[in-house]
Amino acid sequence: MGSSNMLQTVFLALSLPFAGMSAVLVVYVCLLWYVSGGGRRAGTDKPYPEGGLSSQELAKLPRVTGKELGAGTECAVCLEEVDGEEPARLVPGCRHGFHQECADAWLGRHSVCPVCRAKLEARSWLEEAEDRQSPC
């Protein structure tokens, strides 16, 4: 009876740490899989369309000041507040506002609003810009 009891003790002494380390390894592998993107469903990420606006198109976007955007407006690109006298831009259509420098950098790479991802239709806002410049 004594040797059977000792055999159980040795077995438990060896198997419990092995089981614990195996559980830690499984959790670690699952976390790595999740962090690397394996936990996302296919098609849930909306990629930004490639190809932004040209410098000529950017120049035709509405320019305002931070004061015109309203108090407490936060730039979604740099996450800082747009101060009263800072140059700013309004995205045509959705009318979201950003620092001019931030908007130009973003829209030079992507043709969507960084907040709502509304696609900038060049024809519509270029016509608006031409109408604003027209004396009639």
What does this protein look like?
The chain is mostly helical and 136 residues long. It has two domains: 1-45; 55-133, Herpes Virus-1 (2-Layer Sandwich), CATH 3.30.40.10. The protein has helices spanning 2-38, 55-59, 66-69, 100-107, 122-133; strands at residues 63-65, 87-90, 97-99. Strands 1-2-3 form a three-stranded antiparallel beta sheet. The termini are far apart.
Name a few traits of the molecule.
136 residues, mainly alpha, Herpes Virus-1, 2 domains, three-stranded antiparallel sheet, 5 helices, rod-shaped
Helix count, DSSP H or I runs of 4 or more residues: 5
SS class = mainly alpha
The CATH architecture name of the largest domain reads: 2-Layer Sandwich
Tell me the radius of gyration.
29 Å
Describe the largest sheet. 3 strands, antiparallel
Strand order of the largest sheet: 1-2-3
Level of helix content? 40-55%
Q: Count the E strands.
A: 3
Task: Tell me the CATH superfamily of the largest domain.
Answer: Zinc/RING finger domain, C3HC4 (zinc finger)
Terminal CA distance: 108 Å
Order of helices and strands: HHEHEEHH
Low-confidence stretches: none
The CATH topology of the largest domain: Herpes Virus-1
**How large is the share of residues in beta strands?**
5-15%
Mean pLDDT: 79
